[in-house]
Amino acid sequence: QKEVEQDPGPLSVPEGAIVSLNCTYSNSAFQYFMWYRQYSRKGPELLMYTYSSGNKEDGRFTAQVDKSSKYISLFIRDSQPSDSATYLCAMSPGAGSYQLTFGKGTKLSVIP
Amino acid sequence: NAGVTQTPKFRILKIGQSMTLQCTQDMNHNYMYWYRQDPGMGLKLIYYSVGAGITDKGEVPNGYNVSRSTTEDFPLRLELAAPSQTSVYFCASSYTKQGLNTEAFFGQGTRLTVV
């Protein structure tokens, strides 16, 4: 079993839809969870950064972590064509750790 | 403030050639990283550095070397290029705040093809 599993998609949704992106993981030591957005031919940029279980909201984006199920999610409300990108989940073991383990990424297209 | 700058953006190498991918950051970050991204495979850590003069191997270090003589620069050296090294290479940097590692800032990537 890979450490981090992420459905690669592609995922295509109409503008205005709610998007749900998910990752599962097997390493119970992971404590920090991140979502990166990567536009085509660009470097990843951080969207959300959460520690431990719970929800975190930032504008149209909500990150959710369920450590008991080893499952993390990113929700995008009122999706826009500008949200079309690949979304990568990433996680690391704990405070002071700097080695991120990435999922393979989910390619999202938001159709106008 | 340019962030993380990588050069070159594109390169084609012949099998057996060598080259250096340059990476520099102007944010005074202590941590720097090299990742490779293959299609549909996510990012894999090649090497990382926690400060000038200190480097360590990541998940896929074979065929690569790094050095960190300054805080700003973290070049990646490919010796004897092989087709398996065809990939997109990303350099990143981050810093610690109250003992916690913060977000990694990525460069724009170097697309390398080995033929």
Report the oligomer. heterodimer
Supply the number of helical segments of chain A. Answer: 0
Total number of helices of chain B = 0
**Strand share of the residues of chain A?**
over 45%
Shape of chain B: globular
Query: What's the mean pLDDT score of chain B?
Result: 92
E-strand count of chain B: 13
Largest sheet descriptor of chain A = 6 strands, mixed
Helicity level of chain A? under 10%
Radius of gyration of chain B: 14 Å
Anisotropy-based shape of chain A: globular
Structural class of chain A: mainly beta
Largest inter-chain contact set: A-B, 24 and 26 residues
Distance between the termini of chain A: 37 Å
Cα(first) to Cα(last) distance of chain B is 36 Å
Enumerate the spans of chain B where pLDDT stays under 50 for 5 or more consecutive residues: none
List the secondary-structure elements of chain A in sequence, H or E: EEEEEEEEEEE
Write up this protein:
- The complex is a heterodimer of chains A (112) and B (115).
- In chain A, 0% of the residues lie in helices and 54% in strands.
- Chain A is mainly β.
- In chain A, the strands form two sheets. In chain A, strands 2, 4, 5, 9, 10 and 11 form a six-stranded mixed β-sheet that branches. A five-stranded antiparallel β-sheet of chain A has the order 1-3-8-7-6, with no helix packed on it.
- Chain B has no helices and 13 strands.
- In chain B, strand 4 and strand 5 form a beta hairpin.
- Classes of the chains: A mainly beta (112), B mainly beta (115).
- At the A-B interface, strand 5 of A face strand 5, strand 9, strand 11 and strand 12 of B.
